[in-house]
From TrEMBL:
<keyword id="KW-0269">Exonuclease</keyword>
<dbReference type="InterPro" id="IPR042173">
    <property type="entry name" value="RNase_J_2"/>
</dbReference>
<dbReference type="InterPro" id="IPR011108">
    <property type="entry name" value="RMMBL"/>
</dbReference>
<protein>
    <submittedName>
        <fullName>MBL fold hydrolase</fullName>
    </submittedName>
</protein>
<dbReference type="InterPro" id="IPR055132">
    <property type="entry name" value="RNase_J_b_CASP"/>
</dbReference>
<dbReference type="InterPro" id="IPR036866">
    <property type="entry name" value="RibonucZ/Hydroxyglut_hydro"/>
</dbReference>
<dbReference type="InterPro" id="IPR001279">
    <property type="entry name" value="Metallo-B-lactamas"/>
</dbReference>
<dbReference type="Pfam" id="PF07521">
    <property type="entry name" value="RMMBL"/>
</dbReference>
<dbReference type="InterPro" id="IPR041636">
    <property type="entry name" value="RNase_J_C"/>
</dbReference>
<dbReference type="Pfam" id="PF12706">
    <property type="entry name" value="Lactamase_B_2"/>
</dbReference>
<keyword id="KW-0694">RNA-binding</keyword>
<dbReference type="GO" id="GO:0046872">
    <property type="term" value="F:metal ion binding"/>
</dbReference>
<dbReference type="GO" id="GO:0004527">
    <property type="term" value="F:exonuclease activity"/>
</dbReference>
<keyword id="KW-0862">Zinc</keyword>
<keyword id="KW-0963">Cytoplasm</keyword>
<keyword id="KW-0540">Nuclease</keyword>
<keyword id="KW-0479">Metal-binding</keyword>
Length: 552
């Protein structure tokens, strides 16, 4: 890498929403911003979590100065328990993100090895050639930060996830004065959140949501109320708690992640005014019209609290006809069916369901177009790099930036190597990038044989064949075939006899040398089955052959 060039290399979060991982490079030194996950992905059956492949920076880990976290959402720090041991770099975060991360790492066997440096809100520190300053923003979590990254060639503002909210309910409002000061200092590049670029106007305020929740609870004085929201949205948790108290309801927490978040928040000084939150078991002892359950599961997650309540198999919490369930969260694209399934279960049981489509009880944590334009006006960057979005989001924000007179726009994708300085910004190369899938306890590349075979099995089934040959290459018994994903038990024997005959005929035609070669026999059996299986079933199953040789 040339010593006088400032580079930006996204490994995740540019081309998709989630699994953010970004690199800044200068003088053969690297700074990482965020290390997140995403949840599930089409074409990855059996996989719940995916994350960026860090191979590019892993090969340069002796040049990696540290990992700086913008905030504590899973798509910004959730990959640390899985990837940190491959990099072993120091981590820098504000108090809440540090406390939240420590709680997550406590479930690993290397928690004590991770050097986590707590940086106070608005703090500033130096890593090698990078001078980094935290800039307080608002978002749907405590202590979100933009980063002012000063390099020898210019100032970069990395927004993280953000919005402008004059009444965030908890924590400080966005530091507009600091953003303007950075603009006066001269911003070389703005690397900016694109999530809501198609939304006109401004993001709403948590203050309005708080008022609307209190009004909504007052309109439903009878029966139990359960409300689902993102556990990490501590401002929303506080609004729910206060709205419940205003309506003479106590609050019970239902869901492990709610306990984790509230403990992390209290550890750094938030939610300390609410010491009497109940467990789910204790809350069930409270009269119905005096209790509110704060639940996980706003996205229809099958193992989350609300899903189990809807199915009637939660060990502690029960809802009855006439009770009310409130969804105070947006539907993440891809989760609509799961959410609809849970809502339908509740409605069938006579439980009233209220969503953000029915009442103004949710606002986004990301900037609308008016907010983006205001950010451009405050920071006045020379270069706009849209990130945190699908390609359509990135292109739309680039167009908005051009409309707002930002001189240069560069649209990245995962692995793009972008030179920010000197000269005009441009793509100068491609770094290794990809997706790792968490499969049980192991990480697999997205294109691993295991994943490819699993996809094939999902769509085409699998056929197991056992063939027993003697030392002369003669079959000593009929082939045994099992294809439970292709046939019903009632007609297995009839249909499989045909395929067994095909195998026998093909093996009989093998030459003297071929029949003694295991790999040649296995290949011949697969070839013998492919066409008849396709003709009879219209499928191309994975064919697994077990070859046994015996001496007679």
């Amino acid at each position: 890498m040339p010593k006088d060039e400032v580079l930006f290399v996204p490994l995740g979060g540019s081309g998709e929403i989630g699994m953010n991982m970004n690199l800044y490079g200068y003088d053969d030194q690297w700074l990482m911003v965020d290390m997140g996950v995403s949840f599930g992905e089409e074409g990855l059956p059996g996989v719940d979590v995916v994350m960026p492949d860090p191979t590019f920076i892993e090969e340069r880990k002796d040049k990696l100065l540290g990992l700086v976290l913008t905030h504590a959402h899973e798509d910004h720090l959730g990959a640390i328990p899985y990837l940190w041991k491959r990099l072993k770099c120091p981590i820098y975060a504000t108090p809440f993100a540090a406390a939240f991360l420590k709680a997550k790492l406590s479930e690993t066997d290397f928690a004590d090895e991770v050097p986590i440096h707590v940086i106070e809100l608005g703090g500033r520190f130096t890593l090698g050639c990078f001078d980094i300053e935290f800039v307080t923003m608002t978002h749907s979590i405590l202590e979100p930060n933009a980063l002012a990254i000063r390099t020898p060639k210019g100032l970069i503002v990395h927004t993280g996830d953000w919005k402008f909210d004059p009444d965030p309910q908890i924590g400080e409002a966005s530091d507009v004065k600091k953003l303007e000061e950075l603009g006066d200092e001269g911003v070389m590049a703005l690397v900016c959140d694109s999530t809501n670029v198609f939304s006109e106007g401004q993001a709403g305020s948590e203050g309005d949501v708080a008022k609307n929740l209190s009004k909504l609870f007052a309109e439903h004085p009878q029966g139990r109320i359960a409300i689902a929201c993102f556990a990490t949205n501590v401002a929303r948790l506080q609004s729910v708690i206060e709205a419940a108290h205003e309506n003479n309801r106590c609050v019970g927490l239902v869901g492990r992640s709610l306990y984790r978040v509230t403990e992390a928040a209290r550890e750094v000084g938030y939610l300390t005014s609410y010491p009497n939150l109940l467990t789910d078991q204790d809350a069930m002892e409270v009269p119905k019209d005096q209790v509110l359950f704060l639940c996980t599961g706003s996205q229809g997650e099958p193992r989350a609290a609300l899903s189990r309540i809807a199915k009637g198999d939660h060990p502690m919490v029960e809802l009855d006809p006439g009770d009310t369930v409130v969804f105070s969260a947006r539907e993440i694209p891809g989760n609509e069916k799961s959410i609809g399934y849970i809502q339908n279960l509740l409605i069938r049981r006579g439980i009233k369901v209220i969503t953000a489509r029915d009442e103004p009880i949710h606002v986004s944590g990301h900037p609308g177009r008016q907010d983006l334009a205001r950010m451009y006006q405050l920071t006045r960057p020379k270069i706009l790099i849209p990130v945190h979005g699908e390609t359509r989001h990135l292109c739309e924000q680039a167009a908005l930036g051009a409309e707002c007179q930002i001189p240069e726009q560069v649209i990245p994708h995962d692995g793009t190597v972008i030179r920010l300085s000197p000269g005009n910004s441009q793509v100068i190369g491609v770094a290794e990038a990809g997706i790792l899938a968490l499969d049980g306890g192991r990480l697999l590349k997205r294109d691993a044989n295991t994943i490819r075979n699993r996809n094939r099995i999902v769509w085409n089934g699998v056929m197991f064949v056992t063939v027993v040959l003697n030392q002369f290459g003669e079959m000593v018994k009929d082939p045994m075939i099992s294809a439970p994903s292709l046939f019903d038990e009632a007609d297995d024997d009839v249909r499989l006899d045909h395929f067994a005959a095909e195998i026998g005929n093909r093996v009989d035609r093998l030459g003297d040398e071929e029949v003694l070669d295991d790999s040649a026999v296995i290949l011949a059996i697969r070839q013998a089955l492919r066409r008849p299986v396709r003709q009879r079933l219209g499928k191309r199953p994975l064919i697994e052959v077990h070859l046994v040789r015996v001496k007679e």
